[in-house]
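Issue: ligand-bound run for 5-phosphoarabinonic acid - logging full I/O for the record.

Environment: standard queue, default settings, no custom constraints.

Inputs:
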Amino acid sequence: MGSILDAIRAIPRQAREGLQLGRRVRIRSDIQHVIFAGMGGSGIPGDLMQALMRESRTPVTVNKDYKLPAFAGQNTLAVVISYSGDTEETLAAYRDAITSRCTVLAITSGGKLAELCQSDKTPLIIVPGGLVPRQALGYFLFALLGCFTQSGLLAITDDTLEQAIMALENTELGRKAEELFQQFKGKVPLIYTSQALAGLGLRWKQALNENGKIPAYTGTFTELCHNEVEGSASPLMKGFHAVFIRDERDHPGVQKRMAAVKAILKEKSVTVTEIMLRGDHLLIKLCSAIQLGDYIAYFLARDAGIDPLDTPVIRQIKERVRKP
Ligand code: PA5
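Outputs:
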């Protein structure tokens, strides 16, 4: 399986392959909404696509459940992703999508999902196996980008796609993460973003949880200004480290509120890291920040002497629910 570091460094190569895989699939032009169904590392490509499609006219829903919403129907594109192809909730969502007569596109490395797609003749993108699901993000995200751009569901130029892959390749991010991870040590990270970038916050949380093996939580602006901030006076806050992931394109109201919350947290002696996204396009910013978060989680795991790839608790839960 290799190391997590190999897996992080392999993401740009995956992205190039993923683009080619995705470009082989064309989606009907009369799709009215898109639902992404997938869990954990196979769910995050949907969250990121939702962020990228925020400006598009096609509504996007991210579904992390056994059932799809009732509106799913003939004009819905259901994108069903499971790296193993055996995740219970995702298989149930796939069956729901077929029953609801959605146009379905599946992405997997094999398992039951591949079997079902082959017998149902469902369009299927097969990605290489042998990885941990969350580190197959290059394949997933760029296969979706390849497919959606050529099907007219999303407008991103080839030049931007190339720049995004170059951002994934940027070795500076590893160096930056090696400095930054020290600030996270011994604390529970609270990852804060605008609502538009919730998918990015979630990717950081997942990397910190699954690879770094620490609790981590996300919050979005401006909602957290209406509830979470009331906890800031609690002595429990000393155990947290707040991470503000900022974009110069954040709404001015979001920017003001981030500054206000940051000041309040600092007054309460809560430690804070600020990350300013860099790049000419949201996709480039996302790619660069995803790699930074993955490297931070890797350094935390390395520091703690933990194997980031193994996820024994996730496996245990899957085994327990499989038992009759
Ligand atoms: O990254 C992981 O290992 C998990 O988050 C999995 O992605 C999650 O459990 C779902 O499994 P799969 O991706 O095989 O559908």
